[in-house]
Specification:
Distance between the termini: 67 Å
Structural class: alpha+beta
Mean pLDDT: 78
Helix content: 25-40%
Low-confidence stretches: 1-7, 10-21
Order of helices and strands: HEEEEEHH
Number of helices: 3
Length: 137
């Protein structure tokens, strides 16, 4: 995320004009060395992320104590997960990719193994070895 000089720049970036915070407050928070936009919303209020057909609407459905229920309206092409589920999916994908990479044998290795097997077969049959670098005429 690009660094912003101050909260005023953040407000301008989000709302398009300095000092404009319609229907709620905006604060600048630093979280894990990133500037995070923090908006105040009440029950049945929403925020929109993106624009056009790809916009995602997040609505506060219910607030009970320290639990907030969110309703998320997103295009079908956008997957929506709780963070811990998303991280588990990413770990699984990375593990699967590493296993596939480890299982993949380069074509050169297969070719070399085939040449060795052929040579061993010729030697077992008493045939003259083939020198691939210096073919016998």
């Amino acid at each position: 995320m690009a660094e912003l000089a101050d909260a005023q720049d953040l407000k301008s970036c989000v709302f398009g004009r300095p000092g404009s915070t319609p229907g709620g407050s905006i604060k600048e928070h630093i979280f894990k060395d990133e500037i995070m936009l923090v908006l105040s919303r009440q029950k049945d209020e929403s925020i929109i992320i993106g624009s056009g057909d790809d916009a995602i609407e997040v609505t506060i459905v219910d607030v009970r104590g320290d639990k907030v229920r969110l309703g998320i309206n997103a295009p079908r092409s956008v997957s929506v997960h709780r963070k811990e589920i998303y991280e588990a999916i990413q770990r699984e994908k990375a593990q699967k990719a590493a296993e596939q990479e480890a299982a993949a044998v380069p074509e050169e290795v297969n070719e070399a193994a085939q040449k060795v097997a052929d040579e061993l077969g010729r030697q077992a049959e008493g045939q003259q070895p083939v020198d691939s670098c210096h073919p016998v005429n």
